Amino acid sequence: MDRRGFLKFAAGGTVGLVASPIIWNTLYDAVYWTQNWGWIPRVPKGESRYLPTVSKLCPSGTGFLVRTVSGTPVRTVGDRNNPVTHGAITALAAAEAELRVSPARIKTPLRRSADGAYVAVTWAEAERLLKEKMQAAGSSVAAVSGDPTSSINEVLSSMLNQKGSSDFYFMPGDEQPAALAWEAMGGQGRLGYDMEGSDCILAVGAPVLESWGVVAANRSLFNRTHPVAGEATQKLLYAGAVQNNTAAGADLWLPMKSGTDMALMLGLARLLIKAGKKNFAAGLGNFAAFAEAYTPEKVASITGVPAARLEEAAKMLVAAKRPLVIAGSALGSGGAAGPVMAAVALNMLLGSVNRQGGMVDMPFPVAVVDHAAAYRATIKKNLVDYTQAVAAGKAAAPAFLLVYAANPVYALPADSGVKETIAKAGFSVAVASFMSETCESCDLVLPAALGMEAFDDVQTPYGSGRVTYALARPVARPFENARSAGELFIALAQELGLELGVKDMPELLYKHAYALGAPFRAMLEEGKVHVAGFDAPVSPLFYNWEAIRKAASAPGADGDLQVAPVTVLAVGTPQTAIPPFATKVVTDYQLKGRYSVAQMNGATAAKLKVKAGDLVRLVAGNNVEITVVAAIFEGILPDTVSLVAGLGHTAFDEFSKGKGANVLALTSVCREPGTGLPVWGLAGVKAARA
């Protein structure tokens, strides 16, 4: 039989098989029997319910519905009745049901043995050890929290205060430099942003559609103001070095070199003043004189933003009825206060402070736990100041160190002093849901329940323009031997004889709801979210031109290329790493095999004499070297490489270990001129083909 005859035979056989009912009956039988063996996993049968709650894994506390079948969470979806997120959901929150049973979950308390290995212990042993070590430490105790929205922080800070220690810290984030900047400009309360009330938003360095602020709410707002078949009712302008999702969705992208935020905003200030936007406050004359030097041509030479595009952005702000300027950092930490000061000054010029659609002076969360530290004081304390002092021997190492819901070993630069502080601590404890790099560095590791497994809350995440309060309710049993961190700390305080004024987490949450006038029963039983109105305080703002001038003198990062990190929640956070559910959305432009992908434009690739797919060595100023795969993307400025943050873990599970490089390894801590704030948002590297 020749080839043509074979093909005719094969075709005829196929037609015969399709026409015959025998093959379909056989397939049906095969499917039926193979899907009913006892060992094949099945979707649980029983009552299906959708229960509203909020995510404690997503940094902005995304509201969602948890679908449970016979009490087992099987899926999370957006909650259209949530007044903050309006049905939007982040990739991290969408993966929370799967993360609940992640291989990285800590299943039982672990204690480091004499040979350095971890051994499982009972909760009774762990609690006894916890009490003994904290009691013996006296006032030499310190604690770090990675969840600034939770009332659990009040329990921790109260315990430390009663033991005579003020060393309670939040993990660094965007709010810390913002609080410092707001206070420097005369702000009295907590800085907020009424994005929903604005008709034109300029986000400088703040990826509002990816990782900055209340992300799900930001995305929902963008979808509602940018209908597919209609005209946009709100303009979004974005300034950044990479055409990320925020830049791609923006009505105007200002391609700005990393670290030149202040020059861009000072250039805009000059144009606004010339257009007549110069609302008076003390220091206006000096600020205007300082900004005068930032002509569009000078700004273009510093930032890379064409003069015409800068002028277009200024015209859009002038024409808007309710403009708003936001400044933030791509990494969500390590940013400077100077850019936020400049953003405040722009909003002052535009008359966009304490009015609809502008910057708003919001009240700080009020503590209801006895002896707890005030949020206002805690947010201004810097963890890196403390850990660097301990590492350098300028401050005593704590005899007892507790790290809650945080992974500073991964999330902070190597010279932050975190590793040295943990090593020097007399006894270190990590309370976490997943086995992170920090957990692997501690003496005792305790499994914490997730938000859908315990009582917790979300108090007004940074980036909001309204006071909000939501409860995380247990809609499922805790995984394995995990326990509520809040209940654990309250029980520990009681064992130590410390007075909190609350006996358990429900009482603590009730006190917060009562203080806000929130409907606690409806929140507890129905998952309602409280959104409060408030009277904005009248802050005596002034143009602190001297502080802005000093901050603007900060040098750029050394190196032939600037690193522009991109934060994507689908890749997880330092506390969660890559969610197993999200591995399929990690693209070849972010991770290729075991290498991070460095995106660069064609001109940069030609200068380095590399092409797409080549291996490239990046060497930072701290002598850290990583190898990456080159990819060509013209949505990046020349002499810039873009790397996705969130890769390069050495802990967690098979989905995260050894995948790519940690962008933070390329960064080093330096001090911002004027404020002295530790910053590490910029990194410069030298590059060569590997």
From TrEMBL:
<keyword id="KW-0500">Molybdenum</keyword>
<dbReference type="Pfam" id="PF00384">
    <property type="entry name" value="Molybdopterin"/>
</dbReference>
<keyword id="KW-0411">Iron-sulfur</keyword>
<comment type="similarity">
    <text>Belongs to the prokaryotic molybdopterin-containing oxidoreductase family.</text>
</comment>
<feature type="domain" description="4Fe-4S Mo/W bis-MGD-type">
    <location>
        <begin position="48"/>
        <end position="104"/>
    </location>
</feature>
<dbReference type="InterPro" id="IPR006656">
    <property type="entry name" value="Mopterin_OxRdtase"/>
</dbReference>
<keyword id="KW-0479">Metal-binding</keyword>
<keyword id="KW-0560">Oxidoreductase</keyword>
<dbReference type="InterPro" id="IPR053557">
    <property type="entry name" value="Molybdopterin-Qrc_component"/>
</dbReference>
<keyword id="KW-0004">4Fe-4S</keyword>
<keyword id="KW-0408">Iron</keyword>
<protein>
    <submittedName>
        <fullName>Molybdopterin-dependent oxidoreductase</fullName>
    </submittedName>
</protein>
<keyword id="KW-0732">Signal</keyword>
<dbReference type="InterPro" id="IPR009010">
    <property type="entry name" value="Asp_de-COase-like_dom_sf"/>
</dbReference>
<dbReference type="InterPro" id="IPR050612">
    <property type="entry name" value="Prok_Mopterin_Oxidored"/>
</dbReference>
<dbReference type="GO" id="GO:0046872">
    <property type="term" value="F:metal ion binding"/>
</dbReference>
<dbReference type="InterPro" id="IPR006963">
    <property type="entry name" value="Mopterin_OxRdtase_4Fe-4S_dom"/>
</dbReference>
<dbReference type="GO" id="GO:0016491">
    <property type="term" value="F:oxidoreductase activity"/>
</dbReference>
<dbReference type="GO" id="GO:0051539">
    <property type="term" value="F:4 iron, 4 sulfur cluster binding"/>
</dbReference>
<dbReference type="Pfam" id="PF01568">
    <property type="entry name" value="Molydop_binding"/>
</dbReference>
<dbReference type="GO" id="GO:0043546">
    <property type="term" value="F:molybdopterin cofactor binding"/>
</dbReference>
<dbReference type="InterPro" id="IPR006657">
    <property type="entry name" value="MoPterin_dinucl-bd_dom"/>
</dbReference>
